Amino acid sequence: MKMPLLLRSALLLALAGLALPLAAAPKPAEMLDPASLGFDPVRLKRLDAVIQDNVNRRLIAGGVMYIARDGRTAHLRAYGQQDIEVGTPMATNAIFRIASMSKAVTTVAVMMLYEEGKFMLHDPIEKYIPAFKNSVVAIPPPKGAAPGTKFGTEKAKRPIQIRDLLTHTAGLTYGDGPAVELYKEAKLYGWYFADKDEPLAAAIDRLGKLPLHGQPGEVYQYGYSTDVLGRLVEVVSGLPLDRFFAERIFGPLKMVDSCFFLPPEKEPRLAKVYGYENGKLGLGDQGDYVRGPRKCFSGGAGVLSTAGDYARLLQMLLNKGELDGVRLLSRKSVELMHQNHTGDKYRKDTTAFGLGFWVNQDLGYYGELGSEGAYGWGSAYFPQYLVDPKERIVALFMTQHRPSGGNDLNQKFKVLMYQALVK
């Protein structure tokens, strides 16, 4: 009996498929081969030992360490617990409040829209957010001022530019400065927005009417600049910031657990915040990320993410704007992002600040193990990340630790990572 042609073809294709090698399954974390990526496995144990010692001594509750080189995972491990009271061990897919590490996401969003011709980086922000027109700068009371005078004002020498916001030279703090009482009255003191029962537009319009605490372009002042950029993204894209992030960044990069407010069904994976205070570790403020108003999207400090998700954003930057066939930014935009944009105005972790993060341009000034050209930032909840183009490395340590009690583990992990790099 003659076999039908279609059936014969299908059978031949199936048999041929049996002869093809199966794609290798991803290796579990404990089976990774760091030596093939230039890391000494014995030296990496020093990193594990120091983090575990912090857990054992109850200096932190737990955390997740992630290192990748050339886009391949070299080290991924969870330590301690994400909920001490319940006894839930930390998991590598635990969800963390990343606070100021949100700024890198917002910067990417701004640069995407810049590439689409929506604005120039030297455009005045008042062109898109009119509340910032006619800004004044708060200054200490002049000599001879009437008793009780708290501060004076002077006219801003020029409007705030978008580039000023990207470099934290817009004159915006988190409220501290001569006009601090006005910021407190406006409910704009500190970085936390998750409890605000209002849209981002309302908060930023209110901010635009307050005195600045520095002349635009003249001084580095860390503060609300990135939240203003989040509102800029909304204005020029026509989308709320949460939708822009979800549709234009998180979705394309497959950052499946990154968001502003957590879906209730994912709450069991949210690591609890612990803090070290008065010589002991205890529960910290958990915030309003699950049951809060869910209205005000802080581009400066409001995102939640996992180590794996956030590493995908960093890998995209290391890859000069592309990841797994998805390109969010051009090579030239990423190149611009990690140049020194602040001259000698930023003298903190390093001597240079780019568009959204510190940049290490002087290893001698930095004074710790690292690479020239590396860049990174951290979070009020203690996580830190770095991207090292020279060594082709992405590294981040995720935890939820506030207040820190003076702990320096979020800086020390970088030294321990670099000392294990032997090739």
Compact summary:
With 423 residues, this protein is α+β, with helices and mostly antiparallel strands.
Number of domains: 1
Order of helices and strands: HHEEEEHEEHHHHHEEEHEEHEEHEEEH
Class by helix and strand content? alpha+beta
Q: Show unreliable segments.
A: 1-30
Cross-sheet strand order for the largest sheet: 3-2-1-16-15-14-13-12
Number of strands: 16
**Number of helical segments with 4 or more residues:** 12
- Which geometry do the CA atoms define? globular
State the share of residues found in helices, binned by percent.
Answer: 25-40%
CATH domain class:
Alpha Beta
The percentage of residues in β strands lies in 15-25%
CATH architecture assignment name: 3-Layer(aba) Sandwich
**How is the main sheet built?**
8 strands, antiparallel
CATH superfamily: DD-peptidase/beta-lactamase superfamily
Summarize model confidence as the mean pLDDT: 93
Distance between the termini: 64 Å
Kindly identify the CATH topology.
Beta-lactamase
Backbone CA Rg: 24 Å
Report what the structure shows.
The protein has helices at residues 5-19, 41-56, 102-115, 162-166, 180-185, 200-208, 225-237, 241-250, 307-318, 331-337, 363-366, 409-419, and strands at residues 62-69, 72-83, 88-89, 96-97, 136-139, 152-155, 274-277, 280-283, 304-305, 322-323, 326-327, 352-353, 358-359, 375-378, 384-388, 393-398. With 423 residues, it is of the alpha+beta class. The protein has a single domain (94-410), classed as DD-peptidase/beta-lactamase superfamily (Beta-lactamase). A hairpin with a 4-residue loop joins strand 2 (72-83) and strand 3 (88-89). Helix 2 packs antiparallel against helix 12, helix 3 (102-115) packs parallel to helix 7 and helix 3 crosses helix 8 (241-250). The longest helix is centred in the first third of the chain and has 16 residues, at 41-56. The radius of gyration is 24 Å and the shape is globular.
